[in-house]
Design a protein that fits this description.
This protein is 40% helix and 35% strand. It contains two helices and four strands, in the order ββββαα.
């Protein structure tokens, strides 16, 4: 996926993940900021706009990736990672307690 600069004058902040605006695309956005918008004909300000980085992904590809995240294999991997992280935390706490003695 390639990120590109985008902007919007909509009142509401753009969603970071937009799966409803298009029947064929998913929009992913990051670094969303509200900035002043200058009027090109005058030096005065003409409201505000949203600026952000955006990329698109085919909706079928996105849905396929989401399905993979919910698969039993992925779930098992995530549980194993969680168990390893817990063991690491417990080991760190034990080491800190031993160092204090």
């Amino acid at each position: 996926m390639e990120w590109y600069a985008a902007e919007s004058t909509a009142e509401e902040k753009p969603k970071e993940l937009d799966i409803t605006s298009s029947p064929h695309l998913v929009y992913k956005r990051r670094n969303i900021e509200r900035v002043p918008m200058s009027n090109e004909n005058e030096e005065s300000m003409a409201g505000e706009k949203w600026v952000y980085e955006e990329c698109t992904q085919d909706k079928e590809e996105y849905e396929s990736q989401q399905a993979e995240l919910l698969s039993p294999t992925t779930e098992a991997i995530m549980q194993e990672i969680s168990a390893l992280q817990m063991q690491q935390t417990e080991t760190q706490i034990t080491l800190e307690m031993l160092m204090e003695q």
